[in-house]
Specification:
This protein is an alpha+beta fold and 417 residues long. The strands form 5 sheets. Strands 11, 12, 15, 16, 17, 18, 20, 23 and 24 form a 9-stranded antiparallel beta sheet that branches. A 6-stranded mixed beta sheet has the order 3-4-2-1-5-6. A hairpin with an 8-residue loop joins strand 8 and strand 9. The protein starts with 22 loop residues before the first strand and ends with a helix.
Length: 417
């Protein structure tokens, strides 16, 4: 087993939060769980008492602190409780940790520097000792807009105030995470409870302005496949992230069926897990599915009947690009019930698609009621051609109350095409 700490987080936590650079490692199977809590300050009697109290509350065998693998700062806990129950209990009491399933040699981790049951003032105090840039997330449904990348304390304070003041609904918690300097990639798999198959890749464009500037959105456009994917990276994602996740679910006695959206940050061809979704993404779904040659109902049926291994999933070799047309003002306030008058002028050619998102139909007239309104997609031999075709269609729409990014796919187009 390999357990690594991030040097970037040397001073991440204030003394009042009890523990610095903590790691919770979970080895699970169907009968029991083994937890190793690393980097404990043994002189901190308050923390040791708190830990023992939490374990007792969760009917966990009280551990003996001792030396494991040459370290005097670890504790082994044997428990029949699920990993989820104990980890949730620890988080509720403000213990921060990395969570790993080290059935393989772990090199990348999910950092969960979370603040639980702390009010707005506590969060602001915590931010004074945080390294910047940092990432702040609303811990509730936020339509894909609840993520802030903060370059300094002032931006972080604004994010905290907006979240706690109800910008995304009533918020009791927020998440503060390490900022990773890399490039996003969406990696999809489909599962039947026994086996799984990869389901292509995409790169979303979250920022509202061209050049990846401005506030985060639910997605301004995407292209597929991602320029970052290669066989080495694919194997790392499967072996370091997907398979350990499935092993963890098996430890809970759970078999997963359906799509798994793995949101990644790629740093020098190394994958870092940012998020999971149990669905295809938006606009990644609209971007990827037009490339699918296999009947999707056949794939779904095979998942239901646990026979996915018998299905050959085939894809076109063409590239796909999607641009989202949004209401002016998005992702902030925007007008609703604005008619889109020129849709009848849009004539779609082969390999071109138009999907509605934030629209409604009233007496055969189409009105925009959401922030992200329409998705234009084109398949072509290269992304430059696909983007040109999409922009041509949007220009014909000529909707004054909308806007869009003209640079979707710019990194791959500028560098490779």
């Amino acid at each position: 087993m390999s357990i690594q700490s991030s040097e970037k987080n040397e001073n991440l936590f204030d003394e009042k939060y009890l523990i610095k650079r903590p790691i919770l490692t979970a080895l699970t199977n169907t009968e029991s769980s083994i937890f190793l809590i690393d980097e404990i300050d043994r002189s901190d009697e308050e923390f040791e008492a708190l830990l023992l109290e939490i374990l007792a509350e969760n009917q966990v065998t009280i551990p003996e602190f001792g030396t494991i693998n040459g370290s005097d700062n670890r504790v082994t806990i044997l428990t029949s409780n699920s990993t989820r129950e104990l980890s949730d209990a620890l988080r509720r009491r403000c213990i921060y940790y990395y969570l790993d399933f080290p059935s393989i040699d772990i090199e990348s981790k999910v950092l969960m520097n979370s603040i639980d049951k702390l009010d707005e003032d506590d969060a602001k105090k915590f931010l004074k000792s945080t390294n910047y840039p940092t990432v702040i997330k609303a811990d509730n449904l936020a339509s894909g807009k609840g993520v802030y990348i903060c370059n300094n304390e002032n931006e972080a304070l604004i994010a905290v105030e907006e979240i706690f003041n109800g910008k995304f609904g009533k918020a009791k918690n927020l998440l503060i995470e390490e900022f990773l300097e890399g490039e996003e990639m969406s990696f999809f798999t489909i599962h039947d409870g026994i086996t799984f198959k990869t389901f292509d890749t995409a790169q979303d464009h979250k920022r509202v302005l061209e050049g990846d500037k401005g506030k985060n959105t639910g997605g301004m456009g995407a292209y597929s496949p991602s320029r970052l994917i290669n066989e080495d990276l694919k194997n790392k994602i499967i072996n370091k992230i997907i398979k350990p996740t499935l092993e963890g679910l098996a430890g809970f006695g759970s078999k997963y069926k359906g799509f798994l959206y793995t949101g990644l940050m790629i740093v020098e061809n190394e994958p870092y897990l940012i998020e999971y979704n149990v669905r295809m993404g938006d606009p990644e779904c609209q971007t990827i599915l037009p490339k699918l040659k296999t009947d999707i109902s056949e794939i779904f049926l095979a998942c239901c009947e646990e026979e996915l291994n018998n299905v050959d999933i085939e894809w076109t070799e063409k590239k796909s690009l999607c641009i989202v047309v949004c209401s002016k003002g998005y992702p902030e306030e925007f007008k609703k019930n604005i008619e889109i008058k020129n849709l009848s002028k849009i004539k779609l050619d082969q390999d071109e698609y138009l999907f509605h998102a934030g629209t409604i139909d009233k007496e055969s007239r189409v009105f925009a009621v959401g922030g992200r309104v329409l998705n234009f997609i084109s398949l072509s031999e290269n992304l430059t051609s696909a983007r040109d075709k999409v922009i041509n269609k949007i220009d014909k729409l000529n909707w004054d109350e909308g806007f869009y990014r003209k640079d979707i796919g710019y990194k791959v187009i500028d560098e490779l095409e």
